[in-house]
């Protein structure tokens, strides 16, 4: 049984500020497959502050530096292919064939796309007498669902890495294993401390403080209409 009881903040695995756990159920057999810690506002704030600090330098990195990091992420992701496939099967009950043929490969596809686009992306261009410059927006909060966990994690994270943003990820608390392994991949790839942070938890405990945090510059949410309305309300003031 898996026990993922720490969060990934500022390049380190750290304990939650207030210990609280949740059993993760494999829906295929309705048995407990593992346990995670549930974060809160204090954990979110630590992660956001780490991302805010890292943005100062990460946003100024070159195209070549970010391509190097993305290529290292791809290499580490490929090393963990089997682990990721097993985790998808356990956390969301996906058939092993679906996990191996679609769920895990789609994450590699998003990383590959980010690499390909970044190579020739125009961060500045002249339009008549005007120059348009595209800059990293800042700290991004990512809230992802259970049904295609790797797809939704990587399609948010890879473009953020490519464009010089920093981030805090909240994976679905009912399918959290792949999110934890993805954080291990980011660590093994040598992503600079604070660029990528992950806090496990539910919508009330982590989603609300993340979407309403004044130092978060962008929220990317995938999930239900009901939850999306709440995210929009929480994020709107800042």
Set out the fold topology.
Layout: E1 2-4, E2 7-9, E3 12-14, E4 21-26, E5 31-37, H1 41-58, H2 63-79, H3 81-92, H4 96-120, E6 124-127, E7 130-133, E8 139-143, H5 149-163, E9 166-170, H6 177-188, E10 196-198, H7 203-211, E11 218-221, H8 225-235
Parallel strand pairs: 1-5, 8-9, 8-11, 9-10
Antiparallel strand pairs: 2-3, 4-5, 6-7
Helix pairs in contact: 1-7, 2-4, 2-5, 3-4, 3-6, 4-5, 7-8
From the structure above, extract its key features.
238 residues, alpha/beta, 20% strand, Aldehyde Dehydrogenase, Chain A, domain 1, 4-stranded parallel sheet, 3-stranded mixed sheet
Gist?
This protein is α/β, with parallel strands linked by helices. It contains 8 helices and 11 strands.
Structure overview:
The chain has 238 residues and is of the alpha/beta class. It has a single domain (2-235), classed as Aldehyde Dehydrogenase, Chain A, domain 1. 50% of the residues lie in helices and 20% in strands. The chain is built from eight helices and eleven strands. The strands form four sheets. The chain has a four-stranded parallel β-sheet with strand order 10-9-8-11, with helices on both faces. A hairpin with a 2-residue loop joins strand 2 and strand 3 (12-14). The relative contact order is 0.19. The model has no long low-confidence stretch (mean pLDDT 97).
